[in-house]
Write a structure and sequence with these properties.
The complex is a heterodimer.
Chain A: E1 3-6, H1 34-48, E2 55-59, E3 74-77, H2 83-93, E4 97-103, H3 104-110, H4 112-120, E5 126-131, E6 134-135, E7 141-142, H5 161-164, H6 170-174, E8 182-187, H7 191-209, E9 215-220, H8 224-227, H9 231-245, E10 249-253, H10 270-276, E11 296-303, H11 308-321, E12 325-330, E13 340-348, E14 362-365, H12 368-374, E15 383-387, E16 400-404, H13 406-412, H14 419-429, H15 437-447, H16 454-472
Parallel strand pairs in A: 2-3, 2-4, 4-5, 5-9, 8-9, 11-14, 14-15, 15-16
Antiparallel strand pairs in A: 6-7, 8-10, 11-13, 12-13
Helix pairs in contact in A: 1-7, 2-4, 3-4, 11-14, 11-15, 13-14, 14-16, 15-16
Chain B: E1 7-10, H1 20-24, E2 30-32, E3 44-46, H2 56-60, E4 67-72
Classes of the chains: A alpha/beta, B alpha+beta.
Chain lengths: 474, 75
């Protein structure tokens, strides 16, 4: 007689990855554990929809870490709590169905941030969140979802909200966000609930197959071993206790309005990045054989707003103009918000290993705090250029100081904001970096390319500074 | 066993004797058996008649390959 057979689909017929076993097709899960039920429901949906070959399961850390033993689909096993990040990457890189299968410790504790961020971005991921109120794999510690009063090995007197806080309600949290398409809490505690869970799981996977966006299905599930109950008693406990804290039901369903999510693809090609950072106009470094050229290590420091970082970039552009190897390295920090800021520039014939300058050949200090901070780092025989406005200074022995009235000269040159260009011109006038005049002119043109009106004005400032050097520095 | 009627087919080697199916069966035609399997569990057995093919036992069973439900096609 012909028969219809209701049996597991979408799961391997044997589990050899588990290693040799008396029962080659038994899972590693404890008797009565809910994971197997949920695995069967997900796998059945994948098989029914014919999408096993275009599905990637993300296996979590937790009891389901070995999900890849079972699902006949693509699989990636990821670090604790990181499933949403990996799932995001996979779903954006490939046209496929991505399933993130996670437990309460993984998803609601260490992975909470990533979970909410991925949900908020509306990633095309079906998250199946298995909530059994304990860390199962590690032996039954308190989880974010442990009920108030529930005893675990790390809250042996029962969870006390005053010390351990309240259970985390993931469906409720996720449904405060705008992007998720479908959010529902179900249970696998009895056959009515299982059939309802089956419907929700299939719906979530269908939404993924249609590429509509983020779905989150929380499944209340038994862990008889760590709850110290037999399978049937654990089911009763879910139906009487757990659902009070975690009400079953739908929290979001935008399936009807939601449309296929199309994201523009990012262009990470070298060409587009070079264009973005305006590197496409810069000639590649060329080989320099000039034996007299000495590597320069420069530190430029001053108040935020004094043009310290752009003085560094102009110097960098000057070095690039003659095909030198060059690095520019800003210091980022609270200094940038109005205190002192600094950058390091290295100009060399050879490739530069590290852009960090510990002992500059040249220090340009635009204010006193910067001078005091860096003057003792300058190499013996090095030079310190500082704004004369600083007044009397006591420089370390063995270094040469050049007091440049940079602010005043800038004003005299007709560009009050050009103190940094004055410093650049003084550098040129003193021949400090070994770069030719044309290189500095090219650098100014490049630096002000977006405001071409400023180019002649700054070229004048540069010439003015050189003239000042000739007349004033011996 | 009458195979012209629906029946559950249990794989005694893979059953972990959790009892979920026994509890879920609306007809109460499943019971924990009395013979230990190779792994030391007492697998579930079908009483031999009364199954209506509702598949409640299948869906509640956590083991992918411990239990399936066969339903003869009419005609
Ligand atoms: S199919 Fe339904 S009636 Fe038959 S054994 Fe399973 S649960 Fe009982
Ligand atoms: S539910 Fe499955 S594993 Fe549990 S007793 Fe029944 S057949 Fe065995």
């Amino acid at each position: 007689m012909e028969e219809k057979i209701i049996r597991t689909q979408g799961i391997y017929s044997e589990f050899p990855r588990k290693g040799p076993s008396a029962a080659p097709a038994a899972t590693h899960y404890c008797p009565g554990c809910g994971h197997g039920i949920i695995h069967k429901l997900i796998a059945e949906a994948l098989a029914d929809f014919g999408i096993q070959d275009k599905t990637v399961m993300i296996s979590p850390v937790g009891c389901a870490v070995f999900a890849y033993y079972y699902f006949d689909a693509g699989n990636i096993q990821v670090a604790h709590g990181r499933a949403p990040a990996v799932a995001t990457g996979v779903s954006r890189a490939r046209d496929c169905v991505v399933i993130s299968y996670q437990g309460d410790g993984d998803l609601a504790s260490i992975g909470l941030n990533e979970t909410l961020q991925a949900a908020n971005r509306g990633e095309k991921i079906a998250v199946f969140f298995v909530n059994n109120t304990v860390y199962g794999m590690t032996g039954g510690q308190m989880a974010p979802t442990t009920l108030i009063g529930e005893k675990t090995i790390t809250c042996p007197d029962g969870r006390d909200p005053l010390t351990q806080g309240y259970p985390t309600h993931m469906c409720e949290l996720i449904s405060t966000l705008k992007a998720p398409v479908f959010v529902e809490r179900v249970a696998v505690s009895d056959i009515k609930n299982i059939r309802n869970a089956r419907r929700a799981i299939r719906k979530a996977i269908e939404i993924q197959a249609e590429g509509k966006g983020y779905t989150f299905v929380e499944i209340l599930s038994p862990c008889p071993t760590n709850l110290g109950k037999n399978a049937v008693a654990n089911n009763e406990w879910i139906n009487t206790e757990m659902v009070k804290e975690f009400p079953l039901g739908n929290y979001r369903d935008r399936t009807a309005e939601a449309e296929h999510v199309e994201r523009t693809t990012s262009d990470f090609s070298t060409e587009s990045l070079e264009k973005l950072f305006e590197l496409d106009s810069i000639a590649a470094p060329i080989e320099h054989k000039d034996p007299n050229f000495k590597e320069s290590q420069v530190k430029i420091a001053g108040f935020g707003g004094q043009g310290v970082l752009s003085l560094g970039t102009m110097l960098t552009q000057a070095a690039q103009a003659v095909g030198k190897q060059v690095s520019w390295y800003p210091s980022y920090g609270p200094e940038q918000r109005g205190g002192t800021s600094n950058c390091s520039v290295i100009i060399s014939n050879d490739r530069i290993g590290s852009p960090v300058v510990y002992h500059p050949d040249l220090l340009v200090a635009m204010n006193r705090p910067s001078l005091e901070k860096f003057q003792n780092d300058v190499k013996p025989g090095g030079i310190i250029m500082y704004d004369a406005i600083i007044g009397d200074v006591e420089l370390p022995k063995g270094v040469k100081g050049v007091a440049v009235p940079a602010q005043d000269l800038a004003i005299q040159a007709g560009n009050p904001r050009g103190a940094n260009t004055i410093m650049l011109g003084v550098m040129l006038g003193l021949g400090l970096t070994g770069l030719p005049e044309e290189a500095f002119q090219t650098a100014l043109a490049a630096n002000f390319a977006k405001k071409p009106k400023l180019i002649p004005m700054n070229l004048e400032v540069l010439a003015f500074a050189q003239k000042w050097v000739k007349e004033n520095v011996k | 066993m009458d195979t012209t009627k629906p029946y559950p087919l249990i794989n005694p080697l893979e059953c972990k004797s959790c009892g979920r199916c026994v509890d879920a069966c609306p007809k109460k035609v499943l019971e924990i058996g009395t013979e230990l399997n190779a792994r030391g569990y007492l697998p579930v057995v079908y009483k031999g008649e009364g199954c209506i093919g509702c598949a409640s036992c299948f869906y509640t069973c956590p083991e992918p390959h411990a239990l399936e439900v066969h339903i003869p096609k009419k005609g």
